[in-house]
């Protein structure tokens, strides 16, 4: 059975989101709990501008959503299943080869 083009696009979109270490860290932080941009920037040690750009990317990929909270905007995973998918992906990669590093990671800085 052939995989639908829409399935491939969904996985490619998820892969693009995970291709950047800061976006990986944002997703992992939001997996634990929703967060506000200023708090996320402080917790991750990145500038608010840089965090904002990455949050916009994740929003564009459909992985995070904004929730108005009074005068503030809170970010959270678009669907709780994304947190489970991240958990499963982490467990799978660690179970497959826990001590292996990606050879391209040192060359290209991938996560």
TrEMBL record:
GO terms for biological process: response to cadmium ion; response to lead ion. GO terms for molecular function: cadmium ion sensor activity; DNA binding; DNA-binding transcription factor activity; lead ion binding. It comes from the Bacteria. Keywords: Cadmium, DNA-binding, Metal-binding, Transcription, Transcription regulation. It holds the Pfam family HTH_5. Transmembrane segments: none annotated. Residues 3-97 form the HTH arsR-type domain. PANTHER family: HTH-TYPE TRANSCRIPTIONAL REGULATOR CMTR, TRANSCRIPTIONAL REGULATOR-RELATED. Metal-responsive transcriptional repressor for the cmt operon. Binding of cadmium or lead causes the repressor to dissociate from the DNA. Homodimer. This is HTH-type transcriptional regulator CmtR. The lineage of its organism: Bacteria, Bacillati, Actinomycetota, Actinomycetes, Kitasatosporales.
């Amino acid at each position: 059975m052939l995989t639908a083009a829409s399935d491939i696009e969904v996985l490619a979109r998820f892969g693009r989101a995970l291709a950047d270490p800061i976006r990986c860290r944002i997703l992992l932080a939001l997996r634990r709990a929703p967060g506000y941009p200023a708090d996320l920037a402080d917790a991750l040690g990145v500038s608010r501008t840089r965090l904002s750009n990455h949050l916009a990317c994740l929003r564009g990929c459909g992985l995070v959503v904004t929730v108005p909270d009074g005068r503030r905007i809170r970010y959270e995973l678009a669907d709780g299943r994304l947190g489970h998918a991240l958990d499963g992906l982490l467990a799978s990669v660690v179970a497959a080869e826990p001590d292996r590093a990606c050879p391209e990671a040192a060359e290209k800085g991938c996560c």
